[in-house]
């Protein structure tokens, strides 16, 4: 049954042709019966009118406006040739319904006016001999009802189709929006993972490289210093592994664990340990905290830690030998201020002029993204007297 229904939907003209043939057969039967009762052959104009009206039904959905005009023309021919009402005139109701449902605006208005006028005109042209003037007026009024109902039914079908089309369009648009949001969420998550990986790997590996170089240099002359450097390398490696496990655990489970093999995310309180680790790698760091320390939102805590970590990593990478750095953390009433400066050679111009990517890393890009996520501001660039300067202000209220 479903297949038959789908077949009929795919071939509307064939369905209309079938009903047109049925209408034509009914019309011919009526004409034959009328001719037999009067003892004569049906007139040619009546046959032609029946044929044309049946043709209009067959092609009503293919060319609704043209078939409406054809039907109107056939009605005029009926008046001119004095062909009274025929069974085939039912096609006028069908065409009015079709145009009201599918036709252009001008055709819909024409169909409504023409349909309402057809009944009175028909009653004037062929009045009922057994009814007076009042009776003919009443008959004309009743005859107008089917035309009005046909147009109203077609218009309601048109409105219903437009409503369902709007619902389908809205559903499609919502689906596209959901897909776009999913893509944005995936891109944001990938960027977050990239920032975390960069911060964890770049910082800890740079510390391990510096300590390994120092250990190799003093291996023969100062074994104790070499042993201490190796211990630092071991501790840094374990810290890197712990943070990597935390990050991979988040990826696997979708949540952050603070027990077992996964460590909590770093915060502002751990910056002191970070500074000591950098000092152990040979970089002189002046660290100060101003204001009253207090708990901050987790996003601000992690952002502050990563900014200081990346800034000190860049000092080791680009500052050169004997470079010193200073770290200032300021607790404001409505935010947290960070200032990291060094007196080294400074980073290459591409690192800050092209948005933070110098072809070897994306440290400043990650900083800007992190600061932007919490609604803060970041300023990075060379100092007038040499070296590099990174300043950030992180608000305590999330950005909207």
UniProtKB/TrEMBL annotation:
Native organism: Streptomyces luteolus
Domain Histidine kinase, first and last residues per copy: 200-398
InterPro entries the record matches: DUF7134, HATPase_C_sf, HATPase_dom, His_kinase_dom, Sensor_HK_TwoCompSys, Sig_transdc_His_kin_sub3_dim/P
Record-listed E.C. numbers: 2.7.13.3
Assigned keywords, A-Z: ATP-binding, Kinase, Membrane, Nucleotide-binding, Phosphoprotein, Transferase, Transmembrane, Transmembrane helix, Two-component regulatory system
Keyword hit for Translocase: no
CDD domains reported for this sequence: HATPase_UhpB-NarQ-NarX-like
SUPFAM superfamilies: ATPase domain of HSP90 chaperone/DNA topoisomerase II/histidine kinase
UniProt GO MF annotations: kinase activity
Entry keyword annotation includes ATP-binding: yes
Catalytic activity: ATP + protein L-histidine = ADP + protein N-phospho-L-histidine
Segments passing through the bilayer: 12-32, 44-60, 67-100, 106-126, 133-153
EC top class named in words: transferase
Superkingdom to which the source organism belongs: Bacteria
Identification of the protein by name: histidine kinase
Lineage of source species: Bacteria, Bacillati, Actinomycetota, Actinomycetes, Kitasatosporales
């Amino acid at each position: 049954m479903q297949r038959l229904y789908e077949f009929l939907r795919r071939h509307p003209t064939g369905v209309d042709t079938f009903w047109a043939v049925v209408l034509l057969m009914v019309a011919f039967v009526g004409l034959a019966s009328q001719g037999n009762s009067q003892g004569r052959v049906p007139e040619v104009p009546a046959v032609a009118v029946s044929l044309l009206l049946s043709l209009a039904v067959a092609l009503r959905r293919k060319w609704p406006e043209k078939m409406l005009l054809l039907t109107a023309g056939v009605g005029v021919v009926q008046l001119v040739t004095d062909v009274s009402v025929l069974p085939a005139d039912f096609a006028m109701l069908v065409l009015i319904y079709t145009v009201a449902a599918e036709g252009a605006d001008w055709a819909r208005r024409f169909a409504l006016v023409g349909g309402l006028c057809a009944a009175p005109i028909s009653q004037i042209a062929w009045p009922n001999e057994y009814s007076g003037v009042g009776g003919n007026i009443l008959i004309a009024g009743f005859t107008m009802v089917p035309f009005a109902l046909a147009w109203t039914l077609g218009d309601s079908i048109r409105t219903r189709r437009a409503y369902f089309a709007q619902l389908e369009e809205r559903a499609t648009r919502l689906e596209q929006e959901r897909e776009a949001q999913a893509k944005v969420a995936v891109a944001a998550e990938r960027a977050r993972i990239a920032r975390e990986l960069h911060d964890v790997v770049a910082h800890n590996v740079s510390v391990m490289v510096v300590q390994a170089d120092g250990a190799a240099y003093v291996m023969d002359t100062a074994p104790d210093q070499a042993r201490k450097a190796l211990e630092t390398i071991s501790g840094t490696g374990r810290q890197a592994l712990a943070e990597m496990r935390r990050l991979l655990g988040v990826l696997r489970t979708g949540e952050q664990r603070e027990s077992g093999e996964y460590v909590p995310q770093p915060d502002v309180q751990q910056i002191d340990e970070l500074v000591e680790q950098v000092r152990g790698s040979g970089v002189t760091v002046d660290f100060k905290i101003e204001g009253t320390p207090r708990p901050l939102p987790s996003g601000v805590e992690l952002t502050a830690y990563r900014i200081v970590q990346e800034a000190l990593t860049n000092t080791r990478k680009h500052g050169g030998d004997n470079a010193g750095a200073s770290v200032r953390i300021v607790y404001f009433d409505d935010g947290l201020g960070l200032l990291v400066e060094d007196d080294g050679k400074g980073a290459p111009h591409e690192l800050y002029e092209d948005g933070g990517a110098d072809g070897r890393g994306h440290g400043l890009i990650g900083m800007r993204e992190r600061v932007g996520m919490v609604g803060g501001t970041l300023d990075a660039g060379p100092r007038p007297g040499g070296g590099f300067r990174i300043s950030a202000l992180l608000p305590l209220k999330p950005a909207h």
